[in-house]
Amino acid sequence: MRKTYWAGLTRIVSTKLWRRICARLVRVILVEPERPASSLAAATAVLQSRGSLIWFPEGKVSPTGELQAFKPGIGLLLEHIDVPVAPVYIEGANRALPLGEWRIHLHPIQIRIGKPLSRDSLIRLGEGVRTRDRIANAVHDEVKKLE
Fold it and tell me: What are phi and psi of 119, to 5 degrees?
């Protein structure tokens, strides 16, 4: 766990001092959608140092629990660094911590983890014109299989 990092949106993490402190303690890599290069550089540094990165490609918890379209960051990141990706589906998070609420509800959460896939296999499996789109779409499809 000492080499595990989490991706977190800057606008959520940095709004309050206690959030910044918690983010630092649990190793949050700040993601800034307006400045993707800096976010991807930090994520790349973690992966190049053999760290693990937990990335939420939807960008936020789905209000309905349905899998949403993935943001392009996951494809862009994996286009530039060749690391295995384990698709993960989290069921029930939208009920345990509904979007816009800070109070946690007691609700069961199930986590399903798929087999790790290489960047090359994601490129072959995915659809799209650009490599980053093929990767992002393949990861999305692999997570969808875990529903």
Answer: -60, -40
CB atoms within 10 A of CB 69: 11
Packing angle of the helix pair 36-48, 73-80 (nearest 10 deg): 50
Q: Helix H segments across the chain?
A: 10-13, 17-25, 36-48, 73-80, 93-96, 119-125, 131-145
Cα 112 to Cα 91: distance, rounded to the nearest angstrom: 8
CA distance 45 to 77: 11
Q: Identity (one letter) of the amino acid at 102?
A: W
- Cα maximum dimension of the chain: 44
Going from N- to C-terminal start, the domains of the chain cover 1-54, 61-147
Contact by Cβ (8 Å): 71, 39: no
pLDDT tens, residue by residue, 58-74: 877 788 889 999 888 88
Whether the full predicted model's pTM is greater than 0.70, yes or no, is yes
CA distance 17 to 2: 23
